[in-house]
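S.,

As promised, the iron/sulfur cluster run. Input:
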Amino acid sequence: MTDPVAMSRPTEGAAGKTGSWRTFRPVVDREACNACGLCAMYCPDGCINEDHEIDLDYCKGCGICAQECPKKAIKMEREER
Amino acid sequence: MAEIPKEEYLEKCTTACAGCTSSLSLRYVLKAAGPDTVLVVPACCTSILQGIYPNTAFNIPVYNIAFAAAAACASGMSEAFASMGKKTNVIVYAGDGGTVDIGIQALSGALERGTDFLYICYDNEAYGNTGMQRSGATPMGARTTTTPGGKTDAKKDLDRIVAAHNIPYQATATPAYPKDLYEKVKTALATPGPSFIHILAPCPPGWRIASDMSVTVGKLAVKTGSWVLWERKYGELGISSPSKGAMKKRAPLRDYLSLQGRFKGISDSTVNELEQAIEKNLAQLAKEEAGEC
Ligand SMILES: Cc1ncc(C[n+]2csc(CCOP(=O)(O)OP(=O)(O)O)c2C)c(N)n1
Ligand code: SF4
Ligand code: SF4
Ligand code: SF4
Ligand SMILES: [Mg+2]
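Predicted complex:
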């Protein structure tokens, strides 16, 4: 069926794998983390899940999670590529 | 306070710049609104964020419309849903250029008509999508591509223009305080008739800040009193808790300005003017909250 108007459909990766934008990657130090959830709350792109795991396929490397972490448990490490 | 739902309505990922707080805002707007929602979006960064046809990162229906028409379109949509007996939320999500300059007459008309909708202006204080030209919402002293020496006019007072329409619900927010933003969207959507929320959205490329600083800068906007969080329900003003501290003791304005490249080289007299505008605004809001005006 063709759409009556130009219509897009919800798709993961609609803007490609935005992880390729990164110049720095966030790395979580599990020992230092107190599971407060602030990193996930502030990630503009919703790339951090409930277990505080970061989806590196899409994380853009903005660094907000590291900046806002009260435990300084996230380090931004330079991507090697 | 209710828990913020885990559901995300933006698929990974939009095309927003790294550290975009307009995207962060939208995450919470949609969490508050839920799936039975239509967004009306005039030309702005949010038109682009959706991705590339035939795909979109937005997991709710979006109607992309010409600049000047967003609020008028929302009026029609809201009437159509009502006549079908549907309770679908109609939310305009528009930039500052599309609100304080280009969309203002359609907005005023929809507020006057009493349209049952929520109009959100996310304010990155310039025409972001086209390369950061100044808008009526750009603050005095800020450099944009069309004000290379710093803007000489003051920021247009959109909130007092909207307030003059005496709508049932009006608020300010910023995603540096996501819970406050979430609660305000909930309240707005639960209030019949027109609601308006003005969101300050720090923008890394436009404000010339590092991508990791946009939330910090949003907090400083509140702590310095540059951005005051409040809500007005049926004419009753309440200052929101993050701004209560700033009403008593403000962080130095320079702390906010010096983090942003757009204010580089700002003169002392301009800082002074900004300072005076903050004091005047805070004094007026305090009086209104106390019922003295
Ligand atoms: C009638 C019309 N004039 C100009 C444009 C070009 N245009 C597209 S987006 C945009 C900037 C919008 O600025 P704002 O509303 O602040 O949103 P932002 O891009 O900052 O998110 C402009 C000028 C247009 N699409 N239509
Ligand atoms: S903000 Fe820091 S401490 Fe809190 S959950 Fe994230 S990594 Fe852990
Ligand atoms: S670096 Fe930015 S995009 Fe990546 S997980 Fe942290 S906040 Fe999210
Ligand atoms: S220009 Fe600013 S508002 Fe637009 S997508 Fe980039 S960060 Fe967001
Ligand atoms: Mg703008």
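The longest helix of chain B spans residues 268-289. The two ends of chain B are 31 Å apart (CA to CA).

- D.
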